[in-house]
Amino acid sequence: MKKFVYNGHSRGMCGAVRAAHRSRYAENDRQKGERNDEKRKERRVSGAMTDQTFMKERRILPLVLSMSLPMVISMGVNSLYNIVDSYFVAKMSEDAMTALALVYPVQNLITAIAVGFGMGVNASVSYFLGAGKQRQADGATTQGVLWNLIHGLLLAVLCIAGMPAFLRMFSSDETVVELAMIYAARAFVFSPVITLGVAFEKIFQSVGRMKETMFCMVCGFVANIILDPLMIFGVGIFPEMGIAGAAYATGIGQCLTLLAYLAFYVAKPIPVKIRREYLKPDGQILKRLYGIGIPATLNIALPSLLISALNGILAGFTGAYVLVLGVYYKLQTFIYLTANGIVQGIRPLVGYNYGAGEHGRVRKIFRTALGLTVGVMVVGFVLSWAIPGQLIGLFTTNEETIRIGVRALHIISLGFVISAVSVTSCGFLEGLGKGTSSLYIALSRYVVVMIPAAFVLSRFWGADGVWAAFVLTEAVSALFAFAIYRKCAKNFLREC
């Protein structure tokens, strides 16, 4: 009986133990499965997250080059948008070309606002990711997309409504004004597309996805260059739309760029997300975005103010000097293209490493970028002295204009290498989130030093005084920029 009871008890105990073990094993399997599912989800949703470490682990020179080269190509493509439109519109008539030129400053303003605010998004997202603050990074991403969309909608309404009055300030030719209105009314409808596209561009750049940015911009440009002649002159299924066709072609190209970004966002996730819970305005995040974005916007807009002031000074001599200034700024776009690409490439690197506390790398990134920018400007200087006539001759065949242009290029190019300090410092400071400091440097280059220097020196040396003002300004701005950099290094990078 005892044995029977004992055995029964034993069998009962063994059964309970086995059941407990099975339950424990099942629970372990369940937990293991959940962990694996979570890991798979993380890899699927945030697969790019692990890639972010390359910003603070890869050797600096190859890293800066890999980030900058796609930016150089992207900026080159972006600069070709207006050139392509101008080329095909010029084949219509001089009135159409004049109309396009009148609308361009407003188009440039829309782009400046979008890009300026986008720089705030770029710097903020890269900083938060580097600091390991995922919530704030997602918040900056969401707010950046939302508010740049709002900017685009407001700009579309205001620019279309204000164009008639704006155009009549510069032209009394009703034909030109009418053509300009036709173009503007269609081009500005795409303003929200432009601002959204720029927001995604800067977000992708902030996480190091430079190749995707380049691809998206190339897609839009290719569409524009194909559609321009088809829609302007009417080919195949397309009716002849004239200057309206140029606006539609550009707008469709911008839509394609945005769609490419959205496709990458869905198919190849990035470390930050647009989340519904962050749509509500966040005062701290918006303060950071606009604190960088507003100075950056002003920074981008300042060259237009400078050109207007210099045109006023040069107009007192002959019209040829005004033309030469315009030609120089076309050349400058390409001379500074590579330098600005380097600056674009280092912004997210500076922000990420600063946020991660890698202050030694931040300083090394600045020095590397400065060295590369100096090298680029040396090439620009050499070309300006080796083939100045050929460079000016790309835009005019007038012998007197070429002679004046060669002289101007010889003088202005003396400041190219020096300008590397201020150009690099501006990008570096924006990466740190010090947009106001960057604006101070830009103000010295474009307004505070440049305009008074050009005015005074022109009274002694004529037009040559204006060209000499470029060199003087770059020297003063370089000293100012270096002083600001040293102050930031002392105050914010003490661990260097």
Could you characterize the architecture of this molecule?
The chain is an all-alpha fold. It has two domains: 62-281, no CATH class; 300-496, no CATH class. The chain is built from 19 helices and no strands. The chain has helices at residues 2-45, 54-57, 60-90, 94-130, 134-168, 174-187, 191-206, 210-233, 243-267, 283-314, 319-335, 337-355, 359-386, 388-392, 399-412, 416-432, 435-448, 450-461, 463-492. Helix 4 (94-130) packs parallel to helix 6 (174-187). It is globular and about 60 Å long.
Question: Mind telling me the C-alpha Rg?
Answer: 28 Å
Number of helices: 19
Output mean pLDDT.
82
What sort of overall outline do the alpha carbons produce when their principal axes are compared?
globular
Measured as a percent range, the helix fraction is over 70%
* Share of β-strand residues: under 5%
What summary fits the major beta sheet?
none
Report the structural category: mainly alpha
- Terminal Cα span: 84 Å
Q: Which segments are poorly predicted (pLDDT under 50) over 5 or more consecutive residues?
A: 1-11, 36-50
Number of strands: 0
Tally of distinct domains = 2
What oligomeric state do these chains adopt? single chain
> Which series of helices and strands comes N to C?
HHHHHHHHHHHHHHHHHHH
